[in-house]
Write a structure and sequence with these properties.
mainly alpha, 14 helices, disordered C terminus
């Protein structure tokens, strides 16, 4: 990846490790749909003037159905199911399950026009990362809610399809316009339920959790993610979810007093090593192999 992509990758690794803690705190008081509403509509309204001032909203004309698809694949569905799951799962385990996104993506991307032919190095990286996730989750899953795990699998599928929509249908559109309109779509759809299920009174920790979720992982995070997908490709971009759990686990242990388990200690070195390999540039030999594979695929 380029230096620009690595900078975005590192920033996202930190920014997207934070929301698991904040969601865990917020759903103690907020209904999951209400939380999604507050994460989307305010952020969309804040970004809207930037999109309008740049004149970039007009570029979405003719692409609204795909913007809508992206909105619910990336925001509406995953955030709803994740918020529901975090009523039963620790923030650390939730983050680890999201780390399965690149693995699902590696399968889906091979059956689309955005298919990325993985060289040996990147394939090994994905395998090592997957092993790390399985060890971390498998050693710690007892006592956790399997319903929450199932809900997280739905979230993982949504997170996988979102980058696929960007890379195949929205690649040439400005990120600020796509993100702003997507957030607004989801916020408006969820507003009837959210506005009739408001807490009373609001706890201060809930307010701060929602505010921080709006600013960092929502607005800043998804603008960076859009740019990373365009520059590095959807398969490499989603590997950022291998690093997020490290931040989430540290915050969970330090702030929420969640246990630092054997599974986490064993799995994380593998997850980090896998992410490094999976995002590595292909060697000349691997590039020649990929070109050969592409040529064979295009032959009649």
């Amino acid at each position: 990846m380029s230096r620009k992509s690595w900078a975005a990758f590192i920033a996202l690794s930190i920014i997207w490790g934070i929301p698991y803690l904040l969601i865990r705190v917020a759903v103690r008081q907020l209904d999951p749909i209400t939380l999604v509403f507050f994460r989307t509509l305010p952020a969309g309204l804040i970004l809207l003037p930037f999109a309008l001032r740049s004149g970039k909203l007009a570029s979405l004309r003719g692409h609204f159905r795909w913007v809508l698809a992206y909105a619910f694949c990336e925001f509406g569905i995953p955030w709803l199911f994740m918020g529901t799951a975090e009523k039963h799962l620790s923030s650390s385990l939730t983050a680890l399950l999201v780390a399965g996104v690149p693995l699902v993506g590696a399968v889906l991307y091979r059956f689309t026009h955005a298919a990325e032919h993985l060289g040996p190095k990147r394939s090994i990286g994905l395998g090592v990362g997957a092993l790390g996730v399985m060890l971390a989750v498998g050693l710690d899953i007892s006592g956790s809610s399997w319903a929450g795990v199932a809900e997280m699998l739905v979230a993982v599928l949504g997170y996988t399809l979102g980058p696929l929509v960007i890379s195949t249908k929205l690649r040439d559109l400005p990120g600020v316009a796509v993100v702003a309109s997507s957030l607004l779509f989801v916020g408006v759809v969820y507003s009837p339920w959210a506005l009739t299920h408001l807490p009373s009174p609001w706890h201060s920790e809930t307010i701060w959790s929602v505010v921080l979720l709006i600013i960092f992982p929502t607005m800043a995070g998804f603008l960076l993610f859009f740019a990373l997908i365009v520059d590095a490709g959807p398969s490499r971009a989603t590997v950022v979810t291998y690093i997020n759990p490290a931040v989430a686990i540290i915050l969970g242990v330090v702030i929420l007093s969640e246990p630092l388990t054997v599974g986490l200690i064993v799995g994380f070195p593998l997850i980090i090593a896998g992410s490094i390999l999976a995002t590595a540039n292909a060697s000349p030999a691997e590039r020649r192999m990929e070109q050969s594979l592409l040529g064979d695929a295009e032959a009649p």
